[in-house]
Every structure is written in structure tokens, then in C-alpha cells.
Write a structure and sequence with these properties.
Layout (H helix, E strand, L loop, with lengths): L1 E5 L3 H11 L6 E6 L2 H11 L3 E4 L8 H7 L6 E6 L5 H6 L4 E4 L4 H18 L4 H5 L10 E6 L2 E6 L5 E5 L2 E5 L6 E2 L3 H7 L5 E3 L4 E4 L3 E6 L5 E5 L4 E4 L1 H11 L2
Parallel strand pairs: 1-2, 1-3, 3-4, 4-5
Antiparallel strand pairs: 6-7, 8-9, 8-12, 9-10, 11-12, 13-14, 14-15
Helix pairs in contact: 2-3
Length: 245
């Protein structure tokens, strides 16, 4: 698994790198001391996992994640402070490690990463050969939120929105929550119909009513029903390629 370490303390990066030598599946592809260094590395190297400090000069760890365009890597926070834990999981963090990081605790975090990988494997080619397939607009799915249940055709779902460790589905006048990460959901949805607009949203292309230029080279799409979703600059390039003749 391609891994990037982001921490402003060189000693902390060195210690984490030493501990990660115990996990042969982890391939460290780079290190960054701050968000300005990390963002172009994330764009170029496309790591699958970030070990991310929170308090750093310039943008903090949360602001770095908000700046990532397109599909974000899985994240394990590493910090000397415990007061950010709740906010960390609002950002879909797989784990939250307090410094100094202990090997046993790191091992638990790596195990969570592996579990998350296994959870998304059915959407891969190997998974499809085992009977799983991408879900398209004509597929129906069972959705349960509390005491309410729906059997909904995916073509009716106009928008998927990340809400921490949950995803909110928008269809008709309903907005149920399902316990699943947006990354895992994206891997199951047919990209012909469903497009990752930004870090928080997947849109149903069939529901687009209006497209407008937006800030910094992005786009603003309006869905039937009035939802307005920003397509990030990086995703806007893919979006134009996807919909061009």
C-alpha cells in the first residue's frame, strides 16, 4: 500500500518510518513536512494511505484534507493531542494515534486499513469474478435508516454526500444515512452514471440540470430538485473529458 507521511517534526517522521518497517505491505513513497509540500505529492504519487499530523505550520491536517481534489487517501492521524479525536473521525479517519506512537497501537491501525481494503475488494475485477458487479442506475438497493427502510432504484438517487463515517443518500424527498465511507461506495457504483464531484459528493449524471463555471477552474452543477454541487478543479477536467464528444 503506497503510503505518505506528513508531519512537521523530522524525528517523528523518522520514528514512524522505523516502526512501519515491521509491516511489509506498507510502501512509503514519500514524506512531507507541511500541507504545501504534501498536496503536490498526493496529486503526483496518489498514495493510498496518509499518516497525517494535525498541528503543522500553515494549513493543519484537517485543512490539508479539505484541499485534496478528487478521491482522498485513507487517513490515520498521528498527533500529540487527544482533543481532536472526534473531529478526526468526521473526516473519515481510519484511526487516531497519539504520539509517541506505540508499535502495538500502530499494528491495530494497520489492521483497520487492511479490513477497509477487504471491504472494498468486491468492486475490483477479482471481486466481480466472485459474483459482484458494479451497481448501475437500474439496480435496486436496500436502504435502512433507523426504523425506516427503502428498496430504491439507484437511478432515483441524485446525490451521495459524505457525513463522517456515513453517507447520506438523496432521493425523492428522503435523505437516509448508511454506514459506509464514500470511497467504498464509489468503488461499487458504475462510473458511467455516478461521478465523484469532490471529496464529499458523488452525483448522478442523469440528474444534472445546469452547469456553470466556478472558482479556480471548477464547475458548479445544479441537479433537478435544486441541489448545487461544486466539481473541484481536478475533477472538472475529468468531467469535461467524460461528457465531451
Amino acid at each position: 500500500m503506497k503510503t505518505l507521511i506528513v508531519d512537521d517534526e523530522r524525528l517523528a517522521r523518522n520514528e514512524l518510518r522505523r516502526l512501519l518497517e515491521n509491516f511489509p505491505k506498507i510502501q512509503i513513497v514519500g514524506e512531507a513536512a507541511n500541507a504545501d509540500e504534501a498536496l503536490p505529492m498526493i496529486d503526483e504519487l496518489e498514495p493510498e494511505l496518509l499518516f497525517l499530523d494535525i498541528q503543522m505550520p500553515g494549513k493543519n491536517g484537517f485543512e490539508l484534507l479539505q484541499s485534496i481534489e478528487g478521491k482522498a487517501p485513507e487517513v490515520i492521524f498521528t498527533t500529540a493531542y487527544d482533543e481532536y479525536a472526534i473531529k478526526a473521525f468526521e473526516f473519515n479517519a481510519l484511526d487516531y494515534l497519539l504520539k509517541p506512537v506505540e508499535l502495538a497501537r500502530l499494528s491495530e491501525a494497520i489492521h483497520r486499513v487492511e479490513e477497509e481494503q477487504h471491504a472494498t475488494e468486491p468492486s475490483t475485477s477479482a471481486g466481480q469474478s466472485s459474483g459482484h458487479k458494479l451497481l448501475g442506475e437500474n439496480d435496486q438497493v436496500f436502504v435502512k435508516d433507523g426504523e425506516k427502510c427503502w428498496f430504491v432504484k439507484l437511478g432515483k438517487v441524485r446525490l451521495f454526500e459524505s457525513m463522517g463515517n456515513y453517507v447520506r443518500l438523496y432521493f425523492d424527498d428522503q435523505k437516509p444515512l448508511v454506514l459506509k465511507s464514500l470511497n467504498a461506495l464509489e468503488d461499487r457504483l458504475d462510473p458511467v452514471t455516478f461521478f465523484r464531484a469532490n471529496r464529499k459528493h458523488i452525483i448522478n449524471l442523469q440528474w444534472i440540470e445546469k452547469i456553470e463555471p466556478w472558482f479556480s477552474g471548477g464547475l458548479l452543477v445544479t441537479l433537478r430538485g435544486g441541489d448545487k454541487i461544486e466539481i473541484s478543479r481536478r475533477q472538472a477536467i475529468r468531467f469535461k473529458d467524460l461528457l465531451s464528444l
